[in-house]
Write a structure and sequence with these properties.
37% strand; 3 strands; mainly beta; 100 residues
């Protein structure tokens, strides 16, 4: 499965007049198990057991990139999992500077 990284926010906080902190949040989006109810038309509940979204085609190829190779469902039926990570330049943090 191909992972994506998206920069979603950039924060500029000023801790003192001489020190500026520049940080941003990086989100990695991946798609987990399929949640499509295949028995909805008969009033039941049954999922196919697909554990992870695997695209049929390369990203940017249209509908093939949004269709799961394992179960044939659209990507929207798979659980979306977002992992956020805050990245920063540690040398700009006042707590990281040495007191020498």
């Amino acid at each position: 499965m191909k992972k994506r990284q998206v920069v979603i926010r950039r924060d500029d906080h000023q801790y003192s007049r001489n020190t500026t902190n520049s940080s941003f949040t990086v989100r990695t989006v991946r798609y987990g198990e399929c949640q499509k109810n295949h028995a909805a038309n008969v009033g039941g509940y049954a999922v196919d057991g697909c554990r992870e979204f695997m695209p049929c085609g390369e990203e940017g190829t249209g509908a093939a990139a949004l269709t799961c190779a394992a179960c044939g469902c659209h990507r929207n039926f798979h659980r979306r999992m977002v992992e956020a990570e805050v990245a920063c330049d540690c040398s700009s943090y006042p707590c990281c500077e040495s007191d020498t």
